[in-house]
Fold this protein.
Amino acid sequence: MADQGQSPAQQVQHQPSADGLLNRVKTIASGVLAERKPWAELADRTAFSRPANLAEAMSRFKKNTAYFRINYFLVVVVTMVVCMVLNPASLIVLGMLAATWFYLFVARQAPITIGGRAFSPREQLIAMGVVSVVVVFFLTSVGTILFTAIGISLAVIATHGAMRVPDDLFLDDGETAAANNSVLNFLMQPAQPGPGPNNV
């Protein structure tokens, strides 16, 4: 049965919009994973040594960050996932927030109406942002867990970046620029509209 407040044309256009978002997420994920370096190269024990001074440690860190940036990003993500799994209550809270965001901005086509006033997408976005910040950082321990996971990840990344000798790593300027822009390009490109019901 059709939802009240939605015309048939709106309901037909709704599914392509959701599919387009999911396809873009898949494209971004595929592009990110395609750029990661072999984990064996990341953990090559023969390439580790203590830096002679802080300047050398910083130089190593910059080169390793440019080369292993996707691997480092995945380390952060995995660490956050593990911390959340170890704290089921926080995982449930994040899941509920994610479900609410998905419902309001993907699954639901009609605007939210309260007391006869329809709220624009921008107003819904601001409201959900405020609610999410309050829930994550003030009403639950999710914020603390996230900061803990990020802190652990950054400590591991900083140690690896300073200890891993990057002499055998090759990344030219063109590859660096292309890699830095790849995810941004995926995010900025407009979504392809789905076919309408009566396109001629």
In short: Residues 8-34 form the longest helix (27 residues). Residues 135 and 165 are 42 Å apart (CA to CA). DSSP finds eight helices and two strands in the chain. The helical segments are 8-34, 39-42, 54-67, 69-85, 88-107, 121-139, 142-163, 173-188.
